[in-house]
Amino acid sequence: MTVAPIYPVRVDARLDPNLSRWLWLVKWVLAIPHYVVLLFLWIAFAVMSVVAFFAILFTGRYPRPIFEFNLGVMRWGWRVSYYSYSALGTDRYPPFTLQEVPDYPAQLHVGYPEHLSRGLVLVKWWLLALPHLLIVGVLVGGGAWFALGSETDNYSWSGGGLIGLLVLIAAIVLAVTGRYPRGLYDFILGLNRWVLRVAAYTALMTDAYPPFRLDTGGADPATATIAPTP
């Protein structure tokens, strides 16, 4: 059996067993307070990423406080996206925090790199990532990629693309049957995992090139691989 290599970006999620049939119709309204806060957080994220770029270029290190802040912003954004229209995987309202919330159904972990290449920082976020960015453009729709744009409107991928279409199908099935199709959920999670891996790479958080691999399901293979032995 071939074991998938561990990737430093881990995306885990679990599907709520009793999702409301109709709550998804108003989640865009319920999530507005988060969107307002994230508007300012993503602006700070962009500024901090520029600072991190120069820090890596001159020292080969991503300043730890900036790394933790930027990871917190991404983690917050992922929780809101999972609650809303990137997955509709939970009805539990996202917490207003940059910190990890272990019991929330959506998790994002990125291992802190002790050293990063000073040369790669010049090209990985645009040139090396280009093949992935083309794929992500299909997954999230035109102009919805948060790791490249400087406008805060680009800091969400819940508005269209293949992910948006599949989530809409899931929402309709949920409304009619009261159930979220498990196979569709696993596929949607795999697409979101791809997006977040590329996001962390283009945000300079790792030098490990994202795999061209669709790891479906709520459990990230890396999480399963590095789990402590009982």
Structural features, described:
- Helix content is about 50%, strand content about 5%.
- It has one domain.
- The protein has a two-stranded antiparallel sheet.
- The protein is mainly α.
- The chain is globular.
- About 5% of the residues have low confidence.
Concise account of the structure shown:
With 230 residues, this protein is mainly α.
Structural class: mainly alpha
Largest sheet: 2 strands, antiparallel
How many strand units?
2
Helical coverage, percent range = 40-55%
Count of all domains: 1
Order of helices and strands: EHHHEHHHHH
Number of helices: 8
Strand order, largest beta sheet: 1-2
Mean pLDDT figure? 89
Strand content bin: under 5%
Shape: globular
Radius of gyration: 17 Å
Unreliable spans are: 143-157
Kindly report how far apart the N and C termini lie: 22 Å
Topology, element by element:
Elements: E1 9-13, H1 27-30, H2 32-59, H3 64-83, E2 106-110, H4 124-128, H5 130-140, H6 161-177, H7 182-202, H8 221-226
Antiparallel strand pairs: 1-2
Key phrases:
mainly alpha; two-stranded antiparallel ribbon; 230 residues
